Amino acid sequence: MISTSKGIAFGLAISIALLLVAFLSLLEASNSIILLAAGTLTFSIAYLLIHLSLEYLIFREIGNIYSVLEKIQKKDTTFKASNKIKASLPPLKSIQANIHDYAAAKNREIETLQKNETFRREFFADISHELKTPIFAAQGYIHTLMDGAVEDHTVRDKFLKRAAKSLNNLEDLVQDLITINQIESGFIRFHPSNFDLKESIQEVVEQLEGKALKRDIHIIFKYDKATSYQTYADKDKIFRVLQNLVSNAIKYNKDSGTVTIQINDHKNHFTVKVKDQGIGIHPDDLKRIFERFYRVEKSRSREKGGTGLGLAIVKHILEGHQSKIGVSSTPGKGSVFSFELPHAAKKMAVEEGHLKK
């Protein structure tokens, strides 16, 4: 109560009355009746004057400031702490608590904006470089042909193929950008159904065998022939996840290395692991490899192709299936990527037709 106008006025009035009574008691003419009357009158007048002064000159203005601050907070969708402050609290404590919480909320908002600004700068720098590479390559080949090399059929065919390859890379980059934007915006629809996970993996292996043979890389698929690998998920999008992980395992593997794909059956889910024998990933890079355009070794990664968006898309697709992509790696020995999917009998709680974040 001491922080309210009445509490402060009461305390000050008692102090003033006691001081006056103590002073009057020193006079010879004073008696108990005079002291009592003087103390009571002094207390009453002091209490009224102090209470009214505090209430109308200070507390009412503080109350107005508090009301304005509360209205500002209610318009701030990120601020929720004001709902917890009870109306019965004194204005001084209320406004102090509100200002403290509001300042904390604004600090968090500023930190978020700073992070977003940093991300925006990095994103535009990355995408500018990624777009520039295939455009400049195709431009160079075409200009060379226009300058006269088109007359040489051997050179013409070689340069046209390289220009076409650069334009294909550009198309892949644009398509991946559209895909990841749709995923993050929630526009991509999921169509979960029962399908054989083992068959999807075999299709991916068959599709990428030619790419592996060029580097003498052997693909091993381990599974139990007696087990049914029926799962419930979006078949096309899980195929893309598998395609991306196996393709990366081939791309970043050592020559004549091995890619091992293993599927394990657990009580309620399957675990898929894709292991390579490549250069591995440094612990400092592990936390960032799922960021858009992040490359562990930028120059070598670009030479090997790819848009730098594959793992980011994998991450978002699996999050849409309420799963996570796991990774463990030892530099110089290789990496293992893994994820889980439920049994067909345990249908996932994915909202039909929408990506859940």
UniProtKB/TrEMBL annotation:
A Pfam family matched in the record: HATPase_c
Keywords in alphabetical order: Kinase, Membrane, Phosphoprotein, Transferase, Transmembrane, Transmembrane helix, Two-component regulatory system
InterPro entries: BphY/WalK/GraS-like (IPR050351), HATPase_C_sf (IPR036890), HATPase_dom (IPR003594), His_kinase_dom (IPR005467), HisK_dim/P_dom (IPR003661), HisK_dim/P_sf (IPR036097), Sig_transdc_His_kin-like_C (IPR004358)
EC main group: transferase
Domain Histidine kinase residue range list: 126-345
Top-level taxon of the source organism: Bacteria
GO molecular-function term, one example from the UniProt record: phosphorelay sensor kinase activity
Spans through the membrane: 7-27, 33-50
Alphabetized PROSITE patterns for the sequence: HIS_KIN
Biological processes per GO annotation: cellular response to phosphate starvation
Catalytic reaction list: ATP + protein L-histidine = ADP + protein N-phospho-L-histidine
Keyword field contains Kinase: yes
SMART domains according to UniProt: HATPase_c, HisKA
EC numbers, comma separated: 2.7.13.3
One GO CC term on file: plasma membrane
SUPFAM superfamilies: ATPase domain of HSP90 chaperone/DNA topoisomerase II/histidine kinase (SSF55874), Homodimeric domain of signal transducing histidine kinase (SSF47384)
Protein name per Swiss-Prot or TrEMBL: histidine kinase
Organism in which the protein naturally occurs: Cyclobacterium marinum (strain ATCC 25205 / DSM 745 / LMG 13164 / NCIMB 1802)
Upper classification of the organism: Bacteria, Pseudomonadati, Bacteroidota, Cytophagia, Cytophagales
